[in-house]
Amino acid sequence: MAEVGTNVAAFLGKLWRMVEDPETNDLISWSENGQSFLIRNQSKFAKELLPRYYKHNNMASFIRQLNMYGFHKIVSPDAGGLKTTTNDEVEFSHTYFIRGHAYMLEHIKRKVIFFLIVMKTNFSFW
C-alpha cells in the first residue's frame, strides 16, 4: 500500500487507506481502471465503515466532504444521467485521486468559501 504524505488532509488520507484496503472491497474499492472509486451498499458503508474511519455514520456528510475536496460523481454519457450499475452503488473521481499515485494527494485542496476570504481579508465588495 502506498504511503500518504504528511501534507495531505486527514480526510483524504483516511479515504485513500479505506479505498486501498482489500478488507473493505465489498463496500468501497477502486474502479477497474483506477481512475475512480465505487461505494457499494451505501447504507452498510455508512453504518459499518464510516465510523471506523471518520467517527460518524452520515453518508450525506461524507459526500459533502467529497464535494468540498472537488470529487465528482461519475455520470454515464450513454444513459444521459447519473451512472447506475445498481440502485445503491455510487462512483466518484478526482483528477489527483488515482490508484497507485498517492503522491498526487497533496494536490487536492479543500474548496475555499468566498465569504471566509472576505472576512479574513476585511475586503468589502459592496
Q: How is this structure best summarized?
A:
By secondary structure, the protein is of the alpha+beta class. The chain has four helices and six strands, in the order αββααββββα.
Structural notes for this entry:
Helix content is 33%, strand content 13%. The protein has 126 residues and is α+β, with helices and mostly antiparallel strands. The chain has a single domain, classed as Winged helix-like DNA-binding domain superfamily/Winged helix DNA-binding domain (Arc Repressor Mutant, subunit A, Orthogonal Bundle), CATH 1.10.10. It has a four-stranded antiparallel beta sheet with strand order 1-2-6-3, covered by helices on one side. β1 (28-30) and β2 form a beta hairpin. InterPro entries: HSF_DNA-bd (IPR000232), WH-like_DNA-bd_sf (IPR036388), WH_DNA-bd_sf (IPR036390).
Search tags:
126 residues, single chain, alpha+beta, two-stranded antiparallel sheet, Arc Repressor Mutant, subunit A, 4 helices
The main β sheet shows up as: 4 strands, antiparallel
Rounded mean pLDDT is 86
**Count the strands?**
6
CATH superfamily: Winged helix-like DNA-binding domain superfamily/Winged helix DNA-binding domain
Number of helices: 4
Oligomer: single chain
Tally of separate domains = 1
Q: Please tell me what the overall shape is.
A: globular
Give the second-level CATH assignment, the architecture.
Answer: Orthogonal Bundle
